[in-house]
Design a protein that fits this description.
Blueprint lengths: L5 E6 L3 H15 L4 E7 L3 E2 L5 H6 L9 E2 H7 L3 E4 L2 E5 L4 E4 L2 E2 L5 E3 L2 E4 L2 E4 L4 E2 L7 H4 L1 E2 L3 H20 L10 E5 L3 H19 L7 H4 L1 E6 L10 H13 L3 E4 L3 E5 L2 E4 L4 E3 L2 E4 L3 E2 L17 E2 L5 E2 L2 E6 L4 E2 L14 H19 L15 E5 L5 E5 L8 E4 L1 H19 L1 H14 L10
């Protein structure tokens, strides 16, 4: 029976793709009006804005991972494990790479899936801009694996420093973060808190105020260059209180095994470099025969359809979409954009399945503001964005509560109110019996 249903294939299980699959599964899938399939190269989902907390050790990912197979079972869609390798647009067929285990053994062979409607939501990665040494010596925070890898390197560096007989050498416990956007500044604050909590658990040979240093490098002249200046100023004040070293207006020209060099010929010794500068879409997108821009994003119409194929939709960070019909300004790569677009695509795909493709809604970006969380130290933001000219500045407890609500809204879209309430209660209870930082 399902073979005759309209086939919707969603590639990418990030926040937007997973929300879309869940909502379509609960409506079209549950009522047997369409066959919904979600494809992702990982087995579990973690909300990307949490990765800086995982990297710092403030958050144990086991508590916040969502299993795609379980979500698919609960919400009437199918999950297929694998990375997209290509599409045959004439056959309407998606190809997936083979899937290998950690030892390199092939577990799942390459496969192909037919689609009537294809949605690409593969997100973005950091952009190394071709700078020498970045790929080899810096760690990005695009995936859970990268965040856990950084945490492990940080944890091992502190353990080594605790037990070595010699003095701590320059750069041994120096963390350099390249890029002072939201990820960079949030990570800097979170690392300050987490390293102090970590050293408090019996690592008494290390004085975090003396031995652990955090530096933030930004090519622009201020922190958070894409956000309002008042937010930048407020965050700068807080980071200076934490003794984070700020180097604004400096471009990194090289990353080595032992540190970074800037265009001002500054060299900072560091065995722990995080690259959080710029974004680009995955490079395989430029080989699909679709129109892409210089950072590999698929160029889409305001309906979120690819410019040269109406059967293919793209959204989120991997899509270059006008802010409104006819605009030359593109939608910024932000979580709220992907959420808005996912909500629009639920309506659009229902129309496509019903045979009403000629009346698809058009996307208009609504800027509801920005929030930047500096852990337990402060949270700052501006509310309503373009709707109020970004004039409503907030900080402190109110901003912190609103930031926490963003994640709960994501969970609400995936699980519903009952499950979210139970998760919050369970977290409140178990928090009292757990260390506040990951100790391994």
């Amino acid at each position: 029976m399902t073979e005759n249903l309209h086939k919707v294939v969603i590639v990418g299980g990030g926040a937007g793709g997973l929300e879309l699959a869940t909502k379509l599964g609960d409506s079209l899938g549950k009522k047997q009006k369409a066959h919904i399939t979600l494809v992702d190269g990982k087995k579990t989902h973690v909300w990307k804005p949490l990765l800086h907390e995982i990297a710092a050790g403030s958050l144990n990912p086991d508590k916040d991972e969502l299993d795609y197979l379980a979500q698919a079972h609960w919400h009437h869609f199918n999950f297929r494990l694998g990375k997209m390798s290509g599409i045959d647009r004439s056959k309407k067929e998606v190809s997936l790479e083979p899937f290998y285990d950690d030892d390199g053994t092939e577990l799942i062979p390459s496969r192909k899936f037919l689609y009537d409607t294809l949605v690409i939501a593969v997100g973005s990665t950091t952009n190394d801009f071709g700078i020498k040494g970045v790929k080899e010596h810096a760690i990005a925070l695009d995936t859970l694996e990268q965040a856990e890898r950084f945490h492990q390197k940080l944890h091992n560096a502190i353990l080594r420093a605790q037990t070595q007989s010699t003095e701590i050498h320059p750069g041994q416990l120096e963390v350099v973060i390249v890029g002072a956007g939201a990820t960079g500044v949030e990570l800097a604050a979170e690392l300050h808190k987490a390293t102090r909590e970590l050293t408090a658990y019996g690592l008494d040979n290390i004085n975090p105020d003396r031995d652990i240093n955090i530096s933030l490098i930004e090519a622009s002249e201020r922190l958070l260059p894409a956000l309002p200046k008042r937010m930048s100023q407020s965050v700068e004040v807080e980071l200076k209180k934490l003794n984070v070293n700020l180097h604004m207006g400096e471009r990194v020209t090289e990353v080595t095994e032992n540190g970074i060099r800037t265009h001002k010929d500054r060299y900072i010794n560091s065995a722990l470099v995080v690259w959080a500068a710029g974004i680009r879409a995955p490079s395989f997108l430029k080989n699909l025969g679709l129109v892409t821009n210089n950072i590999n994003q698929i160029e889409v119409l305001s309906t979120l359809q690819a410019k040269n194929d109406p059967a293919i939709f793209a959204f989120g960070d991997c899509a270059a979409c006008p802010e409104k019909p006819g605009s030359i300004s593109m939608v910024p790569p932000r979580a709220q954009s992907a959420h808005q677009q996912a909500s629009l695509l639920v309506k659009s795909i229902k129309k496509v399945v019903a045979g009403k493709s000629n009346t698809l809604p058009q996307y208009r970006y609504k800027d509801y503001g920005s929030l930047v969380n500096l852990g337990s130290y402060s949270t700052v933001g501006n509310l309503m964005g373009s709707l109020m000219g970004g004039s409503m500045f907030i900080e402190g407890l109110i901003a912190r509560l609103m930031y926490l609500m963003l994640y709960q809204m994501h969970l609400l879209a995936l699980h519903g109110p009952t499950m979210v309430t139970l998760r919050l209660a369970a977290k409140f209870i178990t928090r009292r019996t757990e260390a506040h930082v990951k100790l391994h």
